[in-house]
Specification:
The complex is a heterotrimer of chains A (273), B (386) and C (311). Chain A is mainly α and 273 residues long. Chain A is 74% helix and 4% strand. Chain A contains 12 helices and 4 strands; from the N terminus they run ααααβαββααααβααα. In chain A, the strands form 2 sheets. Chain A has a two-stranded antiparallel ribbon with strand order 1-4. Chain A has a two-stranded antiparallel sheet with strand order 2-3. In chain A, α7 (147-157) crosses α9 and α10 (201-216) packs across α11 (221-241). Chain B contains 13 helices and 14 strands. Chain B has helices at residues 2-20, 38-57, 77-90, 102-115, 127-132, 148-161, 175-191, 209-218, 229-241, 257-262, 285-295, 301-325, 330-339; strands spanning 25-31, 66-72, 95-98, 119-121, 141-143, 166-172, 194-201, 222-226, 247-250, 274-277, 342-345, 348-350, 362-368, 371-378. Chain B starts with a helix and ends in an 8-residue tail after the last strand. Chain C is built from 15 helices and 4 strands. In chain C, α3 (28-54) runs parallel beside α8 (158-180). The chains are: A mainly alpha (273), B alpha/beta (386), C mainly alpha (311). Chains in contact: A-B, A-C, B-C. Chain A binds chain B through residues 95, 99-102, 104, 106, 110-111, 113, 115, 120-122, 194-196, 198, 200-201, 204, 235-241, 244-245, 247-248, and chain B through 34, 36, 38-39, 42, 173, 199-202, 204-207, 209-211, 213-214, 230-231, 233-234, 237, 240-243, 262-263, 265-266, 297.
Chain lengths: 273, 386, 311
Amino acid sequence: MYALVAAGLALMLGVARLINFAHGEFFMLGAYVFWFGYSELGLPYPVAALLAPAVMVAFGIAYQRTVIRAILPRSWHVQLIATLATSIVLTNLAIIVLGTQPKEVPTALSSRILDVGGLRVAWQRLLVLAASLAIFWALHRFVGRTRTGRAMRAMSQNCEACAVVGVDVQWTAMVTFALSAALAAIAAALVSPLFNIFPDMGTTLTLKAFAAVVAGGFGYVNGAIAASFLIGLTEALAGSYVSYAYKDAIAFVIMIAVLLWRPQGLLGRRIGI
Amino acid sequence: MRLALTLATLLLIAVSAGAQAPPPIRIGFASAMSGPAAITGEGVRWGATLAVEEINAKGGVMGRKLEAFFADNKAQPGEAVSAVRKLVDVDQVDVIIGQTHSGACLGAMPVVKELGVPMVIEACSHPQIRALSGKGGNEWTFRVALDDEIMAYTFARYMARQGVKSSSILAMNNDFGRGAANAYDAAFKKANVKLLSTEFFDPGQPDYRPVLTRLKRANPETILAVILASDGAPFMRQFRELGLTQRVFSRGSLGSAEFLYQVRDNPKIGDGVIEASYWITGLDPEWDKKWTERYKVPPRIHGSLAAITLKWAVVPALEIALKKHGKADRQTIRTALEEVDVKDSPLGPIKFDANHQAWINMILIEIRDDQLHILEKLSTSPALLN
Amino acid sequence: MRRAIWLVLGVAVLAAPWLVPAVVPRQQRYVLHVLIFTALFAALALSYDLVVGHVGSLSLAHPAFFGVGAYTAAILATQARWSFLTDVLAAGLAAAVVAALVGVPLFRLAEHAFAMGTLGLALVASVVANNWVQVTRGPLCITGIPKPALGPLPVTTLPAFYWLALGALVAVMLLYQGLTTFRLGRAFHAVRDNEPLAAAAGIDPLKYRLLAFTIAAGLAGAVGALYVYYLSVMCPEEMTVGLTVNLLVIVFLGGVGSLRGVLVGAVLFTALPEVLRLAPTWRLVIYGGLLLLVVIRSPGGIESLLRRASR
């Protein structure tokens, strides 16, 4: 789950050179859209699960055209603070509009358990894993094969040159955002049946996703994914065997450790300034 | 001439009638209105509003209407200080009901003493509050709710009576959870129940599988969970998912209508859980009905506690103050609170002892067949702590 | 004319404990309480601005230093019964030492990584404060911190505390001015504005950044100590990452790198919401929105607006 969210974040960072602190809110809003579709409108699970990214794509584009366009040319200090501010606004608006009570979205799969020789897992978790892998594969092909994908890679390497070469920067940026938002929303739709939905859920997630992105090498999607898996695994293992209470700190300890040992991240090559 | 006299008389009557309308008694409510615990503050606000409306609809307290004021303590002691000062200095309240969270309670206590305003605590569960109140040094603080020490000793003894030999504690990592964990640690020792392990988790976080794995490994006979309904739902789901079979004893709001609502897709998830509490829906069916009609969700614990505190502790004190002294200012309300002796509130008897603690009943609730059943109502008293 | 205004303002601020009861007689204690918080926050924000505004490093670790100072003072006051002044000093020192230790590796990182690293530090500190129960008592909080005493003089009343906080603020202001002018200030600004050039001119960026970082942390720790003495209670919730958000709002709304700007920001941010008394969640929405607007439209904050107005 971390991986999907982190991938979206890494995309934005790498391609658009943007630090988006409001990313967790994409996740949170996606979860609420999913809840709305599934619980309130009574849509079947796959439809509601696709509704979330659809709405969030629109939201992502709107966000990009308003806030991001304004802060893109500015220093990254400004970007960080502006997106942080957006995150605060979104989270608290959610509290006001949607209320503080957590929502639950149990689905058919989240209650049924698969029992394989002593290892018990809810079917929903397998869905999360399978869907994640499928999405990553699709993403990989998209970035590698299609024109837009190649444009995105070009932008991440050298923004001035790609304009010369004929890459439509605005369009590519928009697509990147849309994709980023969609990834977060899909993650939300997949994971919500297992957990609760509440307005604050985006905050910790943003921070951990950032930890993964940084540890994986700024902007390298594969790095971010790898780091996310590393963090997720270590959290679970440490939580089980070492100390459950300190679990939250683990993501950041890993990030700090990686930064100190390899300042460019696990898979990154150079650090930009 | 006659006309002028009549008019003058009428005017005089009108003015004196207006002047005679007594000012409302101002009640301050402090709780966590924002931040991660905002859901408790929302409950308090709803409960307080409903209760004040109810009382005013019946004509108020001996003809005096009540007016409610709210302040946000963000569940932090620093903010609790600000909240108390705001209620006292800006809103000029005569009595405060709050602060819901132990950290906030502890922060607020010195300030209510400094300012001389009585505060009736509706939910904080830190045992130190009892030690510090009344003859413990702070004459201005009173508490209706039971604290963790009282509940732990009562519950542990009950568990021992049921033949339980060992347990592990799983508690929220906040003031409520930590305080409870400490209390149960001592109580289990006294009741001869072996404590195998203690685990803490952050409220709101969704993944219990690591901690459940640890619990599985410690292999206790029972689990004592200090957990709220909103966390309890994913917890119990994952508990069943991993196939654990321990009996779950809970102290929080696991055994509640809220929990049942959250697991309504698969109600069997909660079967067998036994919860120790002092409040449950069903203690006051009329109140439950009014709440559900108004707010469209099952009654919330903090809101209902605030309302009960108002109706069965503060209002009787107001009545005593008005009857005996003809006024209801802060000092008279304080002395009146010490004289309150209510036998039949929904929570049980409300009478403040030397430490300003009311020894209300403890209720054991069992979830069975998708419903809450009251197993036992236990009365409490200081003798329990020996 | 300008001088006269400043003089009047200064006198008013000093005489607040007498003025306030005259102006708002029934709310005086509450207003004084808000003013105390404002003074402490302003001092904290100034210390933060040293790092963000004058050396140009976006550190997100300030809550950690505030927390270290606060807990050090709390523990020393309740366990070791040290006197107030030594406590404050110890708190500041502890925070500064921590900053020096983590600063050395952190400052070797590039800007993005540095920000993330400091963020990680703040989060880890928060988790430790919450869980290292043997030392910090975690969520059960450290209670019973006694009232401060300056030598033989006890500080128990609100006005006394107000002057103590005011004194601390003035001290921080003087330090801030001293550090950001003269040669040291110019060195800081050189590192902030053009690092390669500064390095070429013989100014070691690492050394100066670390210096600012450590001093700022020490100040934050001292403010933390004052804070716990005022409240008599210290809980982990007081040092969460949210504190960084508040500081960012103050510094950027007020005007990064300017004394007057940060002060104005602190007053607006701490005092105004009490006056407005908006619903708490709406208040946060408004702050977020304001921050967004300011940062996009007028990155100099209110300070730049003030400068423009005085032309």
